[in-house]
């Protein structure tokens, strides 16, 4: 295999140099979890402290009651608080979490309801009333790839894609455009950028990391902060800038086995040299806030680690802004609960994110200050830092010139910038002479993701997990297929969409778009890097087209590098497109040439994560012992610099199917490790599904006999998935309606599902929240069996798929007929 030239140096620092430097910092044991500030890099906040502002803060502090001070230190979520609550509980901040809605509107809303929501809270916070010091709230939102909670916003590629662009100025411009779209929606604070250095690609947040290489993360950190906030001391909400939040401090990308919220079992030298790489430049660029991480460091939770939050971050690194917690992260500290945690404030947290626990935490913290558990000096320091940020962000100035400038949301200039980012982030892994595509050709565009804007955008898109979206939810966006069709039409050719790859006339070439379904933290963790283990529909599609003599171009969507050797072997060209966001046309810009096949744009993207040779290469980082990737860090072919990829071994190195705990019934069969049990009163037979011959199984219950089918597993634990608001998704067809009550069990939680099977309506999809089964007595920590359907009447039902799916607005909890 002839790879492209090896990028030995990224922005002036090689990874082996970084690791070598780390090794001489100290020789403390790996179990150490108390940091020594002397071993950490120095920095200094810029643009945050000046004498005039500090005097104004002192004057406010002198007027504030203890309740008002503690209120500034607590943040609630829109789903659990109303504006009028602020008259009794003077909180300092409100957030709208990943799937939390604006007031009196659905979570998928355009800018208007969000503007009204922020105003409603601020109107109460700024009321002139006796005994109350008016202080504006900060309103935070997870704008991690554009203002991604707002319908119509520009969605930029996720960070893993931006890392492949190797372009800090692009990052700055994206930050500036994102800030304007946030400010136009009335919001003043972005929980971004993520500065994690992901070192285990099984982690479900890998796509939020720019690179495995700390030097690349370091080069991007300050650029994104300046883009969002403006130059230190200059940008405010009045200039179309918003406060940034560098996150998550610290080590979230280094947890053992890539487990989200897990334990980073590493030395202090590695934590400092690798995982803190982005924080000094972010602080030097003036970041106003930094978010504490859920994870532990050698057993000590970050939300309670004083040596890191206070001694290192505020001391050694000179951070003068404030530290915000993550979603009830304080509750994970031993001895704490979500409503009782003095340890987190004593450790250095300045504002606790207490989305649904805010009231209890407020009351308990006030009590703990009064009884001396939390020193008053710590409260005053935290509130000073919060007020400092509010002044510097321009929140005390009532002018909001960008608010309601909704034409900025999805603005053509921002979409053009996002399209540029897509072009620059594409990495060409293989090309056997089929790219660029002549725009005069007649091509087929296939694959489940070809015309799916939600899938190409990934997690943190209108909902937390990015699921439940349709193309109609993206009024300003373009799917990958649409972009390709537009480019082909311009050159006199044509592009026909066929998700399953069928065609009436043999095409000159097929572009197949496929990849990971959307996910976010927790549910995105995987235990094998094999793409789609045990469920090979996409591979079968590639094989079918290849066997028909049709050249195949694969466009692979993923939030991490994955083992796709079989898919690579069946592709004449293979493009790592990551999660490109709303501008699918950026794919066509590079893949489709002119009518003669001359390219309009070349591939310039280079891998910012090493690509695995086997599915078992979970931690594959340049500079580490045993580094043996399929494609190394910095790899990427181009039209001007081609290379040859030979036949690849198709031995995964690990069996990923036993690790499955979310796919219970796929294409009419039960995948490993699950088994199907069918009682004698029920018969079964294969039938065609919507898209595949014998892709479903039909079950027929006999009348008058108790009949049950069950899917069994080995004590499957779905407690995290339940807390994450996940749903059981059924794709089925009622062939003969149920004549008696149908009971559906999950975790011994029995629900009356008769209404789901009471009438014939063709193929349908139903989502049932896992919490529905908990409500009916289910124990989601020990599922044995996992799922069952039973009735004493007659019924005929064909099942195509049964799987876990992330939260969507159309979930139902059945209640009989």
List the helices and strands and how they pair.
Elements: H1 15-23, H2 51-63, H3 66-72, E1 74-77, E2 93-96, H4 111-125, E3 138-141, H5 159-165, H6 168-184, E4 189-190, H7 214-229, E5 245-249, E6 263-264, H8 268-275, H9 279-284, E7 289-292, E8 296-297, E9 300-301, H10 306-316, E10 322-324, H11 342-347, E11 352-353, H12 358-370, H13 376-392, H14 412-425, E12 427-431, E13 442-446, H15 453-457, H16 480-490, E14 494-497, E15 509-515, H17 537-547, E16 552-557, H18 565-569, E17 573-576, H19 585-591, E18 663-665, E19 675-678, E20 682-687, E21 696-701, E22 707-712, H20 719-723, E23 727-736, E24 743-746, E25 749-752, E26 763-769, H21 770-775, E27 787-791, E28 795-805
Parallel strand pairs: 1-2, 1-11, 2-3, 3-4, 5-7, 6-8, 7-10, 13-14, 13-15, 15-16, 16-17
Antiparallel strand pairs: 8-9, 12-17, 18-28, 19-22, 20-21, 21-28, 22-27, 23-26, 23-28, 24-25, 24-27
What labels would you give this structure?
817 residues, alpha/beta, six-stranded mixed β-sheet, six-stranded antiparallel β-sheet, 21 helices, 28 strands, disordered N terminus
